[in-house]
Write a structure and sequence with these properties.
Strand content: 5-15%
Number of helices: 10
Radius of gyration: 21 Å
CATH topology of the largest domain: Aspartate Aminotransferase, domain 2
CATH class of the largest domain: Alpha Beta
Helix content: 25-40%
Number of domains: 2
Distance between the termini: 41 Å
Structural class: alpha/beta
Number of strands: 13
CATH architecture of the largest domain: 3-Layer(aba) Sandwich
Length: 363
């Protein structure tokens, strides 16, 4: 009952860690006290027991079903979040004298390319810095000898998203942390995908990777064991103690996605939420959004009120209305509404109602 009261009163627009489906919260809460009638908490079970192996197997199977992957791909659940992958990707795929191409479309892509530059030669295939990362440049320039091309599929901070992925003859790497499992796509276009779980597929503390096996084992660098993808594959994500609870919550969330209709249904809901919000933004000149219309993110809408005093007043009213996490990222400012899979349309409607009321009073 307490969870239901919280859900009714608060509208969780946090950018991550973010809203989780209520059934997932309820199952996870029960498992903390008694996991699958074992008499043990999920926080207490051994990671090498059959109890956790079943959780891990179920999570991997859900990923493969949702992504429609075959045995060419391996799925890993690892520590460190997506930021760790900024170094682990080039450590496994790039020698010191080789080239990798990166798209600089926002803060996270920029951080990724800077980390990669410690391991090899980095070419910026495209950058949107000239317009403060408010669009996705479609013309990419990089040598065909590059080991891979890296993109951030959704830019949480700036509110942009790749809606059509680049076609390339070299391996495509995707940081999908903020739009993973939000729509049906051809995941096989990618040779490696990584995503922190805390936005669309679970709780903070675990990072999911999907790796096409044929891209591994091609560099000369000596890789520390704990950073070596091949070693993690051999160990089945159990090289060291995994974040058991976070993996369990991811498994529950992935099953919820499947039960709700899979990625086709998640995509329909994403478009419905995003259309409601962006149509309202477009109808209210009082609010400003500078993101190119064709590149707007369905996950994170970023907009502004030019009068800073009124913007602060709007944020205050959001707080009073029970809207959580709507202040823009510290380097960008403004207002940010994150609309991940578990967010009900009613929360977006509540935001739209407040926007219309506020604009009518202050425009």
């Amino acid at each position: 009952m307490r969870l239901q009261v919280i859900e009714m009163k608060l509208h969780n627009f946090n950018s991550g860690p973010s809203i989780l489906p209520l059934p997932v919260l309820e199952q996870a809460s029960n498992a903390i006290h008694n996991f699958n009638n074992t008499g043990l908490s999920i926080l207490e079970i051994g990671h090498r027991t059959s109890h956790f192996q079943e959780v891990l197997n179920d999570a991997i199977a859900s990923v493969k079903r949702l992504m429609q992957l075959d045995d060419q791909y391996e799925v890993l659940f690892l520590h460190g979040g997506a930021t760790t992958q900024f170094m682990q990707v080039p450590m496994n795929l790039l020698d010191d004298d080789q080239i990798a191409a990166y798209c600089d479309n926002g803060i996270w892509g920029n951080k990724a390319l800077k980390e990669a530059s410690l391991f090899g030669n980095i070419v910026v295939a495209a950058s949107s810095a000239d317009k403060k990362h408010t669009y996705i440049p479609k013309e990419l320039v990089f040598p065909e000898t590059a080991n891979y091309l890296h993109i951030t599929t959704n830019n949480t901070v700036e509110g942009t998203q790749w809606h059509d992925y680049p076609t390339t003859t070299i391996p495509l790497i995707g940081d999908m942390s903020s739009d993973i499992f939000s729509r049906q796509i051809n995941f096989k276009k990618f040779s490696l995908i990584y995503a922190g779980a805390q936005k669309n597929m679970g709780a903070a503390g675990v990072n999911m990777l999907v790796i096409k096996k044929d891209i591994l084992g091609k560099i000369q660098r000596r890789i520390p064991t704990i950073m070596n993808y091949q070693k993690h594959i051999e160990a089945g994500s159990l090289m060291n103690t995994p974040p058991v609870f976070a993996v369990y919550v991811s498994m529950l969330t992935l099953k919820w996605i499947e039960e709700e209709g899979g990625l086709v249904e998640m995509g329909r809901r994403s478009k419905e939420r995003a259309s409601l919000l962006y149509n309202t933004l477009d109808s209210l000149p009082f609010f400003k959004t500078y993101v190119a219309k064709e590149d707007r993110s369905e996950m994170n809408a970023v907009f502004f009120i030019e009068d800073e005093n009124l913007q602060n007043l709007f944020l205050d009213e959001c707080k009073q209305a029970g809207f959580i996490g709507v202040k823009g990222y510290r380097t960008v400012g403004g207002i940010r509404v994150s609309m991940y899979n578990a967010l009900p349309l009613s929360s977006v409607q509540a935001m739209v109602d407040l926007m219309q009321s506020f604009a009518s009073k202050h425009a």
